[in-house]
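Thread amino acids onto this structure.
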């Protein structure tokens, strides 16, 4: 069965939309958020086994600027010293959200802290120090 010439543009647009939606769903997205930082750990976090196994990796606690009770702990070797040398209190942090492209965010990975690559085995933990914990969609805005 041959398509009439009128249907070719419709078929082309449908094919284009299918490819475009697939690309949107499969591409990596990165969000940059502002975070506060401090060298060391909050009181109730115990990562002594990790620090004992990796003494050169000093823990850095990252607080979301809008929600300082939400923390992430990174222990990349040299990160604490580099952040001290930069002298900034608020730093940009690149985050890759995890979840369905058109659905809710179910988690995230921290990729870069003030330009320093922190992917790998040095990401320790995240948590809430008490208080309001917003949904991830709101947290990563």
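Threaded sequence (141 positions):
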């Amino acid at each position: 069965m041959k398509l009439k010439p009128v249907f070719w543009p419709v078929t082309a647009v449908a094919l284009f939309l299918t490819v475009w939606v697939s690309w949107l769903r499969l591409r990596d997205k990165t969000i940059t958020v502002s975070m506060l930082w401090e060298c060391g750990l909050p009181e109730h976090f115990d990562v002594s086994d990790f620090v004992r196994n990796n003494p050169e990796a000093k823990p850095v606690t990252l607080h979301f600027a809008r929600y300082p009770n939400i923390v992430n702990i990174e222990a990349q070797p040299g990160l604490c010293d580099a952040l001290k040398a930069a002298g900034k209190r608020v730093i940009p942090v690149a985050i890759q959200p995890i979840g369905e492209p058109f659905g809710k965010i179910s988690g995230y990975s921290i990729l870069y802290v003030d330009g320093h690559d922190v992917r790998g085995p040095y990401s320790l933990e995240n948590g809430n120090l008490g208080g309001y914990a917003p949904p991830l969609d709101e947290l990563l805005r």
